[in-house]
Amino acid sequence: MRAHSVFRSSLITLLVFSGVLAGSSQEQVIFIPYSDARPILEHMSEVLPSPLKGASEKDQRDAWPSWVKQYDSEIRSRLKKGDQDSVINFLLFGISFTKAPRFTPELIRQLREGTASSDSNSSASGLLKRRIADLLDGASSPVANDRLRFARAVLNDAGYDLSSRDARAPATSFLRSAVDGILKEYASYAETLEAAQRLDPTSQLAQRSTLFRNRGLSLDTSWRPNYALEDSLRELKQNGSLTPGSVHRIAIIGPGLDFADKREGYDFYPQQTLQPFAVLDSLLRLGLTTEGAIQVTTLDISPRVNLHIRHTLNAAQQGSAYTVRLPLDPATKWSPGAAQYWKAFGSNIGSISPAPVPAELKGLELRAVRIRPEFVKLVHPVDLDVVLQRIEIPNPAHGFDLIVATNILVYYDVFGQSLALSNIAAMLRPGGLLLTNNILLEFPSIPMHSIGYRSTVYSESANDGDHILWYQRAAN
User: Fold this and answer.
1) Which helix (H) or strand (E) holds 300?
2) Half-sphere exposure in the Cβ direction for 187 (13 Å, CA)
3) Which residues pair with 370 in a beta bridge?
């Protein structure tokens, strides 16, 4: 879940479970069949990509197998741009490679408005220059810092040589240009969202729901959307849509991996994934599942995410716990529910303790949650592009009870989202639920229908919250 809240300014291996979900040896990931995609193609004929647009049904059917593979490759290639964006977030906010101050909103405003770009004496311009130099120095010999090693790999992959100070000039220019590009992107998003304020609420959400369709696919997350998910799960239990002990098989689309926390860019603790454990913790807290009766499958195209989860799982098999950290800025006026969620996170799956923070971040609150191995072992990864792929489940009754997709579908246009909804429907059991913060187009051919939503506020800051929409697969 990649945690860029759209409302703000925005399975892995299937295990044998009650005889219905099989392990990696029996799991099969397939591309969406043309027969399932055809009604979507007919409905969206005016916006189809080449070679599907204007083609006859026979030509579309013939082109489909090669087109889905090509589009899958294009989607996966967007990870590279997302990795570059993560490095820029690391550059602006990280503390593990520099003694320079972190960027503040005011300094970022100076960069965005151009008041610092040509004045080497300005605080923002000078700070950016210093941080770029420190990042490149660190990345040239990263030693034990896995983030610096990753930054080096990203820059090398983009064609930049870090072997000497003289050779780093092109990399310096690249990073400066990338910062400018991201700031321009976010200015454009802000303009789009401001214009959307004049629309009705449904249209506003629809506008936000494809906001990042042209961005790189970013992996960074935060704990906030998981609070919104728990809020929705509680409401679904209260209205009878979910009953106690009814959730056994769940899938998390895009679980995320914190390289530099999307919200604040924190880099002083190891990289971590949150959402699989957050959802598991919430389901146990609400009595919607029980220990020993739940399996969590993650679906992601990122080799980094899938490898991280596999390593975590392997460590748990050897008896090792998995520790995640949750930062909280006390200067933010959190809603009571958000503050309580932060305090309770992980209480059903591990032990919680305060954790130290670096002197540079004095005042920041940090909690460490040590997740017990038996819960870590419940999470298993599958490499899957949900826009174009699905896990084949021959018996619909053996599908997932719950699928979660927060801050994922926003990276695709309506056509891609519609294909994804078809794949999600095929993986859900009849009556199963999808929770997402995207409004999705409904088709008669896809047995998924909206049954409500929940708006959750994180803090008193403007537009700091999420709308979680609930979609249910038809019972038959």
Assistant:
1) strand 295-300
2) 13
3) 323, 351
Alpha-carbon distances, residue 289 vs 121, 160, 245 (angstroms): 58, 50, 4
Q: Among residues 208, 229, 262, which one ends one of the domains?
A: 208
Q: Which of 208, 228, 244 is the last residue of a domain?
A: 208
Give the angle 411-414-418 at the CA atoms, nearest 5°.
Answer: 100
7/5 Cα distance (integer angstroms): 5
Q: Which DSSP helix (H) or strand (E) runs through 106?
A: helix 105-113
Mean pLDDT by 10 residues, the chain (476 residues): 38 31 60 97 91 94 96 95 92 93 88 61 84 95 88 94 89 94 79 67 65 78 94 98 97 93 83 97 97 94 96 97 94 95 97 92 94 97 98 95 95 94 98 96 94 96 90 92
- Residue 52 maps to a domain: no
For residues 284 and 430, state if they share a domain.
yes
Helix (H, G, I), strand (E, B) or coil at 360: helix
Peptide bond into 270 cis (omega under 30): no
One-letter amino acid for residue 385 of the chain: D
Does the pTM surpass 0.85? The reply is yes
Secondary-structure breakdown of the chain: helix, strand, coil percentages, each rounded to the nearest 5: 45, 15, 40
* Domain co-membership, 243 together with 200: no
In a domain, 23, yes or no: no
